[in-house]
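# step 3/5: fold
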Amino acid sequence: MCDDPRCTHAMPFTAPTRPALSRRALLGAGAATALASGFAATGVGPAFAQPAATRPNAIGPDAALKRLVDGNARYVGNAMENRDFSAGRVARASAQYPIAGLVSCADSRVAPEYAFDQGPGELFVVRVAGNFLDDHGLASLEYGVAVLGLPLIMVLGHSGCGAVDATMKVIKDKTVLPGHLPLLIEAIRPAIETAEKTKAANPLDAAIAENVRYNVRRLVDAKPIVAEAVTKGTVKVVGAVYDIATGKVAMV
């Protein structure tokens, strides 16, 4: 479990320290408001099609999390409500009102909209192998919080994560990978090194869970936009792991 009280989990489901992310220094007090206003003025922020208080996603973090919890239960029970993906297509053309942002693995077997039984426009998903946070992913989530009004962000790992497993093997064997693959390794390495200290019976499962917790902490502390929203209580950051075999999501 994350020990930080700012990333508590209201609803249970059954790289070395990095310097401040680039561009943060450019954002001062009131940056979120300026960002939102700027996007809205240029038409980039379609969520501003109606006042914040009346938007469909104007719900609290706990309510948003409950919708994901309930949706996952429907998915596991093969009782999904979202089957007609043409429904609401015209309305979505003018605005988006996602109830949650996700940092999800790029693994093709993980489909957040299905796993949480949410329709198009409900989830704002950032995907990368190993479900870690980088500058570009953070910028996307900052947009989600400041412009789209996200009340919840979830870091979603999954069972048997190949990116985490590969990182463990590279660290152990001191393998040198080609291309840009070393960037993945360095992003996931801090979580692996922390998990190894626990001497867990299942090192891969422990590393997957720790990778989620590590990125939850990074998001909670991501100043100024996400961290300020978390402090105010308008946004909650949680972590979870999706089991590919069963479809169940468990909080970590």
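# step 4/5: annotate
The first strand starts at residue 100 and ends at 104.
# step 5/5: archive (pending)
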